[in-house]
Amino acid sequence: MKRAMAVLGVAAMSLWATAISAQGRSFGGSWTVDSEKTMAAVTAAGGAGGGTITARTAGGGGRGGGVVAAGGEQRVAVAGGGGGGRGGGGGAMGVAGPMAITLDATSFSDGRNTYKVGGTSTYESPRGTVTAKTSWVSDKLVIEATSQGPNGPIVTKTSWYLEGESLVRETSTPVEGAADRVSKTYYKRS
User: Fold this and answer.
1) Contact in structure between 134 and 156 (CB atoms under 8 Å)
2) How far is CA 65 from CA 62, 99, 139, 171, in A?
3) 20, part of any domain
4) How many whole angstroms separate alpha carbon 62 and alpha carbon 60?
């Protein structure tokens, strides 16, 4: 009897741990950019020193200095921010509008591209063909997208994860001769 109770206890703990672990991966659904959190993240990263965030359709964005996600992902761009990199203050910021995230055991879609979880996918972007490797690293879905640049391959790493009630897309983009540029976009359920 004691042994049966011990086995049941272990089984219950395993189910509980699996349920807790799965909560961190449950981010399918409809999401909208959280303007306040995104602007705070850009400001903290040395991007825009102020300004407003305006929603644009997926694939929008702008030219100018600031934080730009590459590799066919949706964009966060500081318009009028001043010279390339971590631009000056006061520009307006364009971010992708509402999007539907779908996630199951074998695929992830950000509303623009679909990625094979635990495998490799390809899609077309303005830079040409992009090859993306997608995998779980703890409770983060990590996409390593490789595209061809003028000086060879460019690998952009995008992580999707939950932070409290927010969905976060964190993108690390290589910058020639400098540290990688890291940007974060926060989303709230819509």
Assistant:
1) no
2) 9, 25, 32, 16
3) no
4) 7
- Look at residue 137 and tell me if it is in a domain: yes
Beta bridge partners of 120: 133
Report which of 108, 109, 68, 97 is spatially closest to residue 188, judged by C-alpha positions: 97
Q: Spell out the residues 6+ positions from residue 15 whose beta carbon is closer than 8 angstroms to its own.
A: none
* Burial classification of residue 69, based on how many CB atoms lie within 10 Å of its CB (0-12 exposed, 13-18 middle, 19 or more buried): buried
The number of folded domains in the chain is: 1
pTM summary value: 0.65
CATH, residue 180: 2.40.128
Written as six digits, the tokens of 70 are 């590459």
Q: Is residue 64 part of a domain?
A: yes
| Strand ranges across the sheet with 92-96 | 53-56, 92-96, 76-79
Quick: pLDDT tens for 101-152: 898 889 999 888 999 999 999 999 888 999 999 999 999 999 999 999 888 9
